[in-house]
């Protein structure tokens, strides 16, 4: 298990499992806080978490329609977890990017985009509700100026606090939406791949280090019940488990990618 504070790679993909749990908890706390942009005519930059507030999505959709071709989005919503991870790396000298203190990043509002083709679309975006906020000092960055945009950052912090308390019933923290030192310390000491069986179920797959926990054991038992050959069910997602998942997916006519997401969970009747 790798903690957020132990991550050295500079990509927010490293905390995607925990991010998904936070996303699920946030939308339970305040329904429809964030919506997907993955179905729009965009190219996804590496590490993109493709969500934003609904007014920002609508403004992006209008800009894309006027543009007539895809735009490459490198960053949209960034959770307080991802921001804390990047800030920690900045403090340790692992990255030299401009990184705001956790809780202060525009991206945490879910109303900001980093656009690869920024130079070609400044006027276009401005005409469709977007502000080129920082000019050439942060040239890719655009903020949605729609009146309906609200600051969801405190809600996101509260969602993490709720998530932490579910996973740590004997070490609870205040659910007040305030990103104080205690909450920030809890973020750094959270498992990057997510808390097992808390909130949004983890996407189970072969990783380094390998995923482990009760949810992996339940997957292995379900695979064996489905008639898939798997020698061990000891709660470690190893190469044999990946092969078993692929065999199961192939038997159901699904793409055999070895990744246990929502569709494969449903086929296995997993929660």
Task: Give a written overview of the molecule.
- With 271 residues, the chain is α+β, with helices and mostly antiparallel strands.
- The chain has two domains: 4-144, Muramoyl-pentapeptide Carboxypeptidase, domain 2; 214-267, Muramoyl-pentapeptide Carboxypeptidase, domain 1 (Orthogonal Bundle).
- The chain contains nine helices and seven strands.
- The protein has helices at 16-29, 54-67, 80-91, 118-126, 153-167, 181-188, 214-225, 239-251, 262-267; strands at residues 35-36, 42-44, 51-52, 71-75, 112-115, 130-131, 141-144.
- The strands form two sheets. The chain has a five-stranded mixed β-sheet, covered by helices on one side. The chain has a two-stranded antiparallel sheet with strand order 1-3.
- Helix 1 crosses helix 5.
- The protein starts with 15 loop residues before the first helix and ends with a helix.
- The mean pLDDT is 92.
Question: What secondary-structure arrangement, pairings included, does this model have?
Answer:
Elements: H1 16-29, E1 35-36, E2 42-44, E3 51-52, H2 54-67, E4 71-75, H3 80-91, E5 112-115, H4 118-126, E6 130-131, E7 141-144, H5 153-167, H6 181-188, H7 214-225, H8 239-251, H9 262-267
Parallel strand pairs: 2-4
Antiparallel strand pairs: 1-3, 4-5, 5-7, 6-7
Helix pairs in contact: 1-5
The largest β sheet comes out as: 5 strands, mixed
Instruction: Tell me roughly what share of residues is in helical segments.
Output: 25-40%
At the fold tier of CATH, the topology name of the largest domain is Muramoyl-pentapeptide Carboxypeptidase, domain 2
How many alpha or pi helices? Answer: 9
**What's the structural domain tally?**
2
Radius of gyration equals 20 Å
Question: Strand share of the residues?
Answer: 5-15%
Low-confidence stretches: none
CATH architecture call of the largest domain: 2-Layer Sandwich
The tally of strands reads: 7
* SSE ordering: HEEEHEHEHEEHHHHH
Which CATH top level class of the largest domain fits? Alpha Beta
Q: What order do the strands of the largest sheet run in, or round the barrel if closed?
A: 2-4-5-7-6
Mean pLDDT: 92
Overall 3D form? globular
- Helix-strand makeup class: alpha+beta
* End-to-end C-alpha gap: 22 Å
């Amino acid at each position: 298990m790798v903690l957020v504070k132990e991550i050295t790679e500079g990509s927010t993909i490293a905390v995607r499992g925990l991010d998904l749990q936070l996303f699920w908890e946030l939308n339970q706390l305040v329904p429809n806080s964030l919506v997907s942009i993955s179905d729009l005519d965009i190219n996804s930059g590496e590490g993109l978490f493709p969500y934003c507030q609904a007014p920002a999505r609508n403004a992006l959709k209008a800009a894309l329609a006027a543009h007539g071709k895809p735009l490459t989005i490198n960053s949209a919503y960034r959770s307080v977890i991802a921001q804390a991870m990047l800030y920690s790396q900045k403090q340790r000298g692992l990255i030299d990017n401009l990184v705001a203190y956790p809780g202060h990043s525009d991206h945490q509002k879910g109303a900001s985009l980093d656009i690869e083709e920024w130079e070609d679309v400044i006027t276009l975006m401005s005409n469709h509700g977007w502000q080129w906020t920082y000019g050439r000092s942060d040239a890719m960055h655009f903020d949605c100026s729609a009146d309906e945009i609200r600051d969801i950052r405190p809600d996101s912090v509260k969602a993490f606090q709720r998530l932490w308390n579910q996973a740590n019933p004997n070490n609870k923290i205040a659910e007040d939406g305030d990103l104080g030192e205690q909450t920030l310390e809890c973020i750094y000491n959270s498992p990057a791949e997510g808390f097992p069986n808390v909130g949004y179920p983890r996407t189970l797959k072969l990783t380094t280090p390998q995923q482990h926990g009760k949810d992996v054991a339940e997957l292995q038992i379900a695979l064996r019940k489905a008639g898939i050959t798997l020698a061990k069910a000891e709660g470690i997602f190893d190469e044999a488990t990946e092969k078993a998942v692929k065999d199961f997916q192939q038997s159901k006519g699904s793409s055999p990618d070895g990744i246990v997401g929502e569709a494969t969970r449903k086929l296995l009747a997993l929660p």
